[in-house]
Amino acid sequence: MQALFDIFFPKICAACELTLLKNEEVICTECLHKLPVIPFQEAEELVKAPFYGRIPVAHASALLYYRKKGLTQHLIHQLKYYGDERISGYLGTWLGSYLEEEKWTKTLDVIIPVPLHKNRKRKRGYNQVSGFGKNLAKLLKCNYAEDILIKVFNSRTQVFKDRFARTELKGAYFTLNNAEKIKDKHVLLIDDIITTGATMETCARILEKAKPHKISLAAMALTV
Ligand SMILES: [Zn+2]
Predict the structure, then answer these.
(1) What CA–CA distance (Å, rounded) separates 219 from 193?
(2) Distance from residue 15's CA to the centre of ligand 1 (Å)
(3) What CATH number matches the domain at 35-223, 3.20.20.80, 3.30.230.10, 3.40.50.300, 3.40.50.2020?
(4) The pTM is what?
(5) 29 CA to middle of ligand 1, Å?
(6) Which residues contact 86 (CB under 8 A, 6 or more apart)?
């Protein structure tokens, strides 16, 4: 299996595509130094800022700054469109190693990703934040659940799916399953990139219906 994996993903850096050295994994040492890591102590306020006056956010964090044409963009592009799923888990372990030192993460019960619609997931084969969420959950000793927040399309727009892609998107909405699983719980909602915060806001509002104790947010990257 590993050999097969190496054929499709030869050992090259996910950010600059140069060959990795034996002791390097996923991202080369040079790129690790070049990646725009958000100073951890500043991340909380930076991520919370777009949500002020919109939704209550208990705690928040993100790993990297995201800029157009920047290294983070390239990295996430590889993850989303070129099937390099390793990046997701790698970033989860990285952010998790910072977050596990934080007091607030000790009360986390469950990590929930912003969901991907079933068809898109099938096309790509995975939700691009799965590895990120699973590795965060491992380090923060809580659960990871993809069966609570679900993305669906209403059937009326699905009929026009092929010809009117935009209509299809407008018909998408999020829904809540197994709401009892997050009642009175501390939920960490995660996504790949926070840009305007609109998607996370929508998702958080839906999660609120299940009356969780509180909602915190985390992302791989934050647009600046
Ligand atoms: Zn590199």
Answers:
(1) 6
(2) 5
(3) 3.40.50.2020
(4) 0.87
(5) 7
(6) 9, 14, 26, 131
